[in-house]
Amino acid sequence: MKIQQHSLSIIKAHAEINLSADEYLSDQPLSSEEKKYYDECKQYYYMTKRPLISVSDEIFDHNVAIESLILKFGIDEDCHQFKLQNFLNNICSMLNITMHDISIKNIQNGSAILETEIFGKLESKDKALKIRVMYESLTDKMQEEIAKLNVFFLYMGSIEAFAKQQNYRSEIKLNPQFNRTYGPGHTYWTGELKDGRDRGGKPYYCPVGWQRNSLYIIDNLRARYKGWCICYHGTKFSFGLAILLSGLKPADNTAHGEGIYASPSIIYACHPRYAEVKDIEPKHQNEYFKIGKDQYGNDKYGKYVQFVLECRVHPSNIKKIGRETLGVRTTIDSNVSNEEIEWVIKTNAKKIVDFNDVDAEMICTGIMIRVTEQHPQSLPDSKWWSG
Q1: Which of 112, 266, 267, 359 is most exposed, with minimal Cβ within 10 Å?
Q2: Domains in the chain: how many in total?
Q3: Which DSSP symbol is given to 105?
Q4: Dist. CA 67–CA 120, nearest whole Å
């Protein structure tokens, strides 16, 4: 294996040296899990024009000492054509770090998968602090700038946590037997669903106009989560895949206090403040966005898409039930009072709640998707958006 360890502090002292990617290439192939993961990250990158960013939650725990912290970059370039020195100059400037702070571990073949380590001379707490500062600086604008360096993936955290995330990702499975299309002619009911199942005393209404792509969580889901309520969490299009891969970060807007914000109303959760309305570019139209056939029998695709996460939470983890915070003066959802339309879910001080953990305070049971030809603001359920 051609893996060489070089301290960039030495390189900086000899500025005339120009780092070459070939010096660090590893002949170890990517595992099938990693390759699949990076392929999905690229699709995310192509559609959102920003890298998928993943961080291990342990860096937020001040009581955990972490010996080895890495920054791992996926760069959408041929590894043999990759200009390593130029990339390092640019990325260090963007992340506000110096070449004293990191050392190169290796570059994996294929796309340039560059792995660097936060330099070992730093104390564990200082390494974690550097990553926290970097992570919190990654605004939407910053992510767009990083994407211009062809970065489709960025991981911050420990080596062990990265491997764990890969295992989690490989275990995320769709559960197609529970996929549903909701509305007349499909799965449909009016009023509260009366099917005898225990949903924690909270009503469940038909999410008309949406499709559910069900996720496998655990065998005997109904028995394991008996008494857990169904709720929804709207998400930006660009965050959808990141949430599944890295967990759900608590809300930054804490009008009702700290925690994860959800709603029993999908009509409320899909407001564009929560669930971004995304144009579907023709080159990205695929089976996922198909809405039927045209008069000639050709596949027909929608022009707009929204994602909402279908979640379950135990009533004891609902920290607060409060009124809407959008300043709406009209009825949002005829089934849910405006005064009780926002739920704040406990996180027990966790910075990231991992959906893949069956013991998490909140689990994600499906991805709700709405694909439309007209902008969703024109739909009858959306009239309140301007109310």
Answers
A1: 359
A2: 2
A3: E
A4: 8
Classify burial at 3, counting beta carbons within 10 Å of its beta carbon; exposed 0-12, middle 13-18, buried 19 or more: middle
Q: Domain for residue 1, yes or no?
A: no
347 with 317: CB under 8 angstroms? Answer: no
Q: Are residues 223 and 274 in the same domain?
A: yes
pLDDT tens-digit series, residues 311-353: 999 999 999 999 999 999 899 999 999 999 999 998 776 655 5
Q: Is 220 exposed, middle or buried (0-12, 13-18, 19+ CB in 10 A)?
A: exposed
Distance CA(112)–CA(149), nearest Å, equals 12
Place of tokens 């400037």: 93
Q: Is residue 281 domain-resident?
A: yes
**Residue in the block written with tokens 């564009």:** 272
The residue ranking higher by pLDDT, 117 or 264, is 264
pLDDT in tens, 209-218: 998 888 777 8
Using CB atoms within 10 A of its CB, is residue 202 exposed (0-12), middle (13-18) or buried (19+)? middle
- Residues 1-43 pLDDT 10s: 333 344 344 334 334 457 888 889 988 888 877 887 788 788 7
